[in-house]
Amino acid sequence: MAVEALGKNGNNLSSEVWWSPSHPFKSSLTGMSAKALADAYQKASGKQWTQPIGFAHALFELAVDVMKRSAEVGDNKAIVTAIAATKLDTVVGHIEWGQKNLPPFAQKNIAKTPLVGGQWRLREGNKYDIVITDNKTAPEIPAGGQMQPIA
Q: What is the pTM of this model?
């Protein structure tokens, strides 16, 4: 992880958190929870999970869902129509275009997922874990600690 390059100076560094094993969502493909997906990645790779893993998995969830709903596979217009009609619960949260919480010009091109705040916490072996410290914008994602000052 990039924060490890900071050594002890990265402790309590704050960050936005777009996906973590603490997220309460599951895969529409496998039924795996966010925690199970992160654990499986760590076991298979020998590396610590990172936030993009959830989104890489969700991309496959979305692709399978769109192909299942597309009127005609191989027809670009049918695929675009299926993407636009997406309402899918994934390992990163609900994916849906056209949400009303966006400016009108952006609604058809953006699908927002939950975003929370966190801090990197140093643990044994100079490794870091992210702890969710602010979930006001997405209370369904549990906070795992309180914000602490950088020491």
A: 0.90
